[in-house]
Amino acid sequence: MSSDIEIARKAKMKPISEIGARLEIPDDALIPFGRTKAKISGDYLAGLNGRPNGKLILVTAINPTPAGEGKTTTTVGLGDGLNRIGKKAMICLREPSLGPCFGMKGGAAGGGYAQVVPMEDINLHFTGDFHAITSANNLLSALIDNHIYWGNKLEIDPRRITWKRVMDMNDRALREIVCSLGGVANGFPREGGFDITVASEIMAILCLATSLEDLQQRLGNIIVGYRRDRTAVTARELEADGAMTVLLKEAIQPNLVQTLENNPAFIHGGPFANIAHGCNSVMATKSALKLADYVVTEAGFGADLGAEKFFDIKCRKAGLSPDAVVIVATVRALKMNGGVSKEDLGAENVAAVTKGCANLGRHIENIKQFGVPAVVAINHFTADTEAEVEAVKAYCRDLGVDAVLASHWANGSAGTEELATHVARLADSGQAQFAPLYDDTMPLFDKIETVARRIYRADEVLADKSIRDQLKRWEADGFGNLPVCMAKTQYSFTTDPARRGAPTGHSVPVREVRLSAGAGFIVVICGEIMTMPGLPSVPSANHIGLDANGQIEGLF
């Protein structure tokens, strides 16, 4: 079979105006970026508010493994499948980050015959949203140091500046730096650092904002550091919110593209799934619900991180009510959860599949806690045997959930007809009785314990007195109603990435808590979380280049 980029290059894309016309978007509401990409006018989107909402479907997954789960590929395949069976459907995805593209993970535009296109553009510079976010973030950084240089009227303590610079690339050398060296003309030396752009609070803000006005309000609420008396200094006090909003005024508009089968897709925003909520923008999702009868979206990593944050942060803040959930699993990944090494995944091992299904079962149970019905999508690999697939289906039947084999990677929408039929029936059933896991009024530490006990199945949360006191101070300052954004390893229900399956009886140590006042959540860091990744020993960048015809090769 051809590589992803070869398949994408052969796609017969339609002009973006035709894709917009399928959604009844007029030409004057499209802001084209060439023939196959466009942004949607904010004024047009604001006029959709009176329309009824379509059905919202979340695609999530078991805990990720090196064997691969294919969440984005399944999201694209399901969207195509719904259109194939006669439904008016569209998908909403995050934008890929350049860091993983040139690092180890690769792109995030789907795979095989379930992709969004133009694949090269989407995985690289796209419409410039990430560049705008990077610029806005670093403008704020420059204004902080400039304010201190010119007298520091706000009395910012240089030792307590929490705002970092960002770039959209993996570069471990920039995690911790010393800036303003070189003498009086260059300012006051201090310690600083870089995060990757997707970890910027501005990325999270863009993806939770509902309008330009809301965007500026949130930007102004960003806490950049503290004074010596520990009082917070905000971006609004630095008079930075207006200029930052100007830099982001186009970036906040959703991007319209198409799948290989010419079905509409919004790809917009890309917050980190650890340090932030890992979902595409609220603007894109809410707009899609007005334009289509079924909207398929995804959340980052496994359901313990992505789905929980989708429900407890995005849906809570945006007033969304999901109708169905698809939990993606692969036989290969379940075998790894059952103790099989990556090298041995090609051999049939029904016992390991059954043992690994404990991880899938935990996610099914967790989704049920939110009151949303679920179906399992078994993302098919050619090495899967009938006995292994039947073992997954039998396990799910015992839990009262259907499991459907999907072969969209190899067959496109033809491979998801059965899944699409199940999902549409589930979304239309009226079974969903969505409710977040905890109330806004619950104390912050109790919210952390609720997630740890009910989602991770931990026995306890370990936190120093200083952390508990910090949470109480934030409650006293009026931030107690915010949701918590748990930052932990994506590979396990615990904070130990090596513990697969469905462990119980463990503890969740909280190392640090951070207030993202602009985004509107409390980040709870459990274990070591990297906000500026490094490159692997052999990065993907080593194999990306132009061929003799000037076409990109090696991108995946």
From TrEMBL:
Listed SUPFAM superfamilies: P-loop containing nucleoside triphosphate hydrolases
Catalytic activities: (6S)-5,6,7,8-tetrahydrofolate + formate + ATP = (6R)-10-formyltetrahydrofolate + ADP + phosphate
InterPro entries linked: Formate_THF_ligase, Formate_THF_ligase_CS, P-loop_NTPase
Pathway terms, separated by semicolons: One-carbon metabolism; tetrahydrofolate interconversion
Signal peptide extent: none
Gene3D superfamilies linked to this entry: Domain 2, N(10)-formyltetrahydrofolate synthetase, Formyltetrahydrofolate synthetase, domain 3, P-loop containing nucleotide triphosphate hydrolases
EC number(s) per entry: 6.3.4.3
Biological process (GO), any one: tetrahydrofolate interconversion
Similarity comment text for this entry: Belongs to the formate--tetrahydrofolate ligase family.
A molecular function (GO) term: ATP binding
Keyword terms of this UniProt record: ATP-binding, Ligase, Nucleotide-binding, One-carbon metabolism
Classification lineage: Bacteria, Pseudomonadati, Pseudomonadota, Alphaproteobacteria, Hyphomicrobiales
Gene expressing this chain: fhs
Name of the protein in its database record: Formate--tetrahydrofolate ligase
Residues annotated to bind ATP: 65-72
NCBIfam families per record: PRK13505.1
